[in-house]
């Protein structure tokens, strides 16, 4: 049971980033579709459950030590390099979005310039990555359970104190810009770009478990938890869409309504999630090209971090609405490949066709 909970916790932890925690992603890909967006959360939950189960199970079967092994197992050597590159570049895009999110958070909560807020966080994450302070990363990551509990409490408050009727909320939703043309497409896009970030952690965590069944159950449980959180937060934001529409941090706006003092605590929790995600993404991207712990790695992290800061100037809301859908469409290929690999594995009763020699390369 311990191994199952570890995989589930890691899956949830890596995907509950700043966009999820702030409510911005949920608003763009679900709430802006109105009531159909709630159906979208159920569709996303079902796909998350399947992908979590399939990826963790295959990671265990291959005893994977990196996402590269699993990617080549799923896509084969001809396309594996392309998917590997897509996942690697997505790490840079995530860094950019997290820096923009930090700036938006500090501007909304503390009245600090978004440019200055992003700059301060950029300096922090570069320092952590260059010094490789693992304890700091672990400490920051520990805020995930707190974030989950606070999100559930605020969501319950928002639903129970709703004043506008459903027709009025639907009318507001129609004036918003969703992340896709159709609610079902938005739901699939949300899963698609998230699973690009989820592949590395599911491959590694699954590979560390000898029992494939336990690994698969861990992925399944993680997907179910994510789906439940998505539905609850979407219900909360839809209940108050008339007052939070257009806010870069809609969940934080709801917290401020409850208590200004509590909003400071929640803002710090969300900031912790931003830092955790940004540090992990910058480290993974830099380490893909330069050996970690070396002088070249540190100089590379500085340069890449500064480049990410430049990209963050586009703005948090714009990045969530543009960058994530782009990677979502690319991720459809990966989702299809995972499905076919899983079916092939079930039929053959063995691991998917894989160029084993790619392991460790």
Automatic annotation (TrEMBL):
The keyword Transmembrane belongs to this UniProt entry's keyword annotation: yes
Keywords: Membrane, Transmembrane, Transmembrane helix
Organism: Marinobacterium marinum
Name the record gives this protein: Membrane protein YkvI
Segments passing through the bilayer: 33-58, 70-98, 110-131, 138-160, 180-203, 215-238, 258-285, 297-320, 326-343
PANTHER family: CONSERVED MEMBRANE PROTEIN, MEMBRANE PROTEIN
Signal peptide, first to last residue: none
Domain of life: Bacteria
């Amino acid at each position: 049971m311990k191994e199952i909970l570890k995989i589930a916790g890691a899956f949830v932890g890596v995907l509950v980033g700043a966009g999820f925690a702030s409510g911005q992603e949920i608003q763009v890909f679900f709430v802006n579709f109105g009531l159909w967006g709630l159906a979208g959360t159920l569709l996303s939950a079902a796909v998350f459950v399947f992908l979590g189960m399939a990826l963790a199970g295959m990671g265990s079967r291959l005893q994977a030590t990196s996402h590269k092994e699993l990617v080549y197992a799923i896509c084969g050597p001809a396309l594996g390099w392309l998917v590997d590159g897509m996942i690697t570049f997505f790490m840079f895009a995530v860094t950019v979005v997290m820096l923009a999110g930090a700036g938006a958070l500090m501007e909304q909560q503390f009245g600090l310039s978004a440019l200055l807020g992003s700059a301060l966080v950029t300096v922090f994450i570069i320092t952590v990555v260059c010094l490789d302070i693992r304890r700091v990363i672990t400490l920051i990551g520990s805020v995930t359970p707190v974030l989950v509990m606070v999100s559930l409490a605020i969501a319950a408050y928002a639903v129970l104190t709703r004043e506008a009727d459903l027709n009025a909320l639907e009318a507001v939703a129609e004036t918003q810009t969703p992340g896709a043309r159709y609610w079902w497409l938005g739901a699939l896009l949300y899963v698609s770009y998230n699973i690009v970030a989820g592949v590395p952690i599911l491959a590694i965590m699954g590979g560390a478990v000898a029992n494939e069944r336990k690994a698969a159950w861990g992925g399944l449980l993680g997907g179910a938890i994510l789906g439940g959180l998505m539905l609850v937060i979407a219900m909360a934001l839809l209940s108050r869409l008339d007052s939070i529409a257009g806010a870069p941090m809609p969940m934080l706006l709801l917290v401020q309504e409850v208590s200004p003092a509590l909003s400071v605590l929640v803002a710090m929790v969300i900031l912790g999630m931003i830092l955790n995600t940004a540090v992990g993404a910058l480290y993974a991207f830099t380490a893909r090209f330069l050996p970690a712990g070396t002088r070249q790695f540190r100089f590379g992290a500085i340069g890449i971090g500064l480049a990410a800061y430049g990209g963050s100037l586009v703005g948090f809301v714009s990045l969530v609405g543009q960058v994530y859908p782009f990677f979502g469409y690319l991720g459809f290929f990966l989702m299809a490949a995972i499905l076919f690999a899983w079916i092939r594995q079930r039929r053959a009763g063995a691991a998917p066709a894989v160029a084993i020699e790619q392991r460790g390369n």
